Structures are given as structure tokens and as C-alpha cells.
């Protein structure tokens, strides 16, 4: 049977689209289940990323028999120069869920459950000497699409949006990580730029090389976003990004600024960040100035566990990668362990 009919005969709907290609929801007659098929554009760099993803997924599946942490690969094939990867079908991404919820924050207990699973997945990958390098809410999927609507008392009565008095909560907090096309082994070259902008660690921007801890920084940014509803560093420019970090987290360490590579030298002057002198516009300075300190940002949204959560985030968002918590260390943090004691008492 031709693969064209293999796909077309069973297409149910389009689930998503990206620079790599598209994802279709299809019916698998043999397994009698819906699957997601990622169809990758027939361009060399996307094909190469797809083959890396297949290799990583097979490696992960070998060590994660229950398939509880990462999306499971069912099969793959090459059709007319398009790599097609067949996955189990999951629910929406955390980003899509936030967007459909008008970017309302998640309750702190749900953030805790999501954070725990995300750290467990990353600790598992790091044990296998793998670095994801592109963790973001778009690449974390809820296992189930089901949700409940609950009253939202924080909405202004004048809000014109339909359903504004209600917010969605996932029925299940189970998540899985996807998109391993940028995943790299620990021993490979780590000098190039990785991560999607908002979730990119300072050592990557400063050209200092990177390792496992760049994933941990991304997790810190993601947890702030889940707690607040908005990306922590909303910027598209390196110097502004670094200035935002300093505004939220305090000054960058001297020893890191002294070691910047030649591409990042222009962001530093006389041993400190060239800010606000080097800003490209007044709007840029305003965008940085309006950001609150990390503690204040969190306390605007968190009713309880605020102290533990802030302390965890400060460990995940340490500038120096060698001082940053590892995924395993983060899982032993009181933000997660105190909750266990509370529930068992």
C-alpha cells in the first residue's frame, strides 16, 4: 500500500503547524487508536533534526518502559523525502492551554505537580547524558485534553470576554515532554546558540558554552510563566534580555561578564552590563524598568507556598550554571517535599 493512501485514508484533522512541517491527527486501524503524525519538510536541516529526534525517542523509550515521562514514538517512515514520525496522541500544550484560558495563571498546587513531572523528565534525560535544549510551554503537552470550568473571582465585572467569570483547569495534571529535534548528547559541541529566546540561559547569550543546566534555567522560566500567566522575559534582543534578567534577579556576576565571547563583548562595558546606555530605544528601557523583582512577581499570584516557591526559583535561575540546582536537587526542594509531608499528615 502506498504511504500516501496510508496517511490520507486515515487523516482526521490538522493538529498543528511549524517551521519543521505539520502534525496531523490520524486513525491507526491496526492499534485502533488516534495517533499524531509529524510530517517533516523535505529540507536537509529539518530531515537531520527529525532523524536526531527518532534516535533520541528510541533511546528514551528503551529506558522509560512505562512511557510516563516523554512522548512515545509508535513508528516512523520516509515518504517522498518527508520524514513522518508516528506518536501517541496527547492533549494540548501548556502554552495552548494558557492561551485559551486568556493567559490566566495556574494555581500553585497545579504548578507544583507540573514542575515535579517536568523535573523528573529532565533528571531522567540528564541521567542518559541527554540535554533537551528547547524546553518551553509549547513543548510540554497535557496527556488529556479534558478540563473543568471553575469560577474566576479575580476577573473584573466589566470584562467583556465571553466566559470571563470562569477559568479552565485541566482535569488531570499529567504531562509529557515533546520535540527532541534539538536534543544533544553531553559530549557534543556546545558552543552554538540553543533554546527559544524567552527560555534561553545567560551563559548561552554570553557565549560561555552550556550544558545540562541550560535545561534547568528554562524550567525556572516556565514555572514563573505558569504561576503568572505570562512569559518572564518578553524580548527579542540580547542586551535587553540580559537587562531584564538583572532587573528581575539582580546583577550578573563579574566573573561571567569578564569571560564573554567576542560576539557578546558589545553587551559589556567596564566590567558591567552596558545598560541603559546601550539600549536601542526608550521603549526598550521602559520594558525593562516595568519588570518587578522575582519575589514581588511571585507574591502577586501565590496565596500559599510562596516562600518555598521563590526559593526554588532562585535556585533554578542562578546565573552561574555551576551554582544552579540540578534537576535532581530541585526535586528534593521543600517546595515539593513539604507538600508530601502536608498530605501524609
From TrEMBL:
UniProt xrefs under PROSITE patterns: PROTEIN_KINASE_DOM, PROTEIN_KINASE_ST
SMART domains: S_TKc
GO molecular function, one term: protein serine/threonine/tyrosine kinase activity
Gene3D superfamilies membership: Phosphorylase Kinase, domain 1, Transferase(Phosphotransferase) domain 1
Keywords: ATP-binding, Kinase, Nucleotide-binding, Serine/threonine-protein kinase, Transferase
Reaction equation(s) it catalyzes: L-threonyl-[protein] + ATP = O-phospho-L-threonyl-[protein] + ADP + H(+); L-seryl-[protein] + ATP = O-phospho-L-seryl-[protein] + ADP + H(+); L-tyrosyl-[protein] + ATP = O-phospho-L-tyrosyl-[protein] + ADP + H(+)
Enzyme class, spelled out: transferase
One GO cellular component term noted in the UniProt record for this chain: nucleus
Entry keyword annotation includes Kinase: yes
Keyword set includes Repeat: no
Listed EC numbers: 2.7.12.1
A Pfam family assignment: Pkinase
Cross-referenced InterPro entries: CLK_kinases (IPR051175), Kinase-like_dom_sf (IPR011009), Prot_kinase_dom (IPR000719), Ser/Thr_kinase_AS (IPR008271)
Domain Protein kinase: 9-336
Similarity comment: Belongs to the protein kinase superfamily. CMGC Ser/Thr protein kinase family. Lammer subfamily.
Name of the protein in its database record: dual-specificity kinase
Organism: Aquilegia coerulea
Organism lineage: Eukaryota, Viridiplantae, Streptophyta, Embryophyta, Tracheophyta
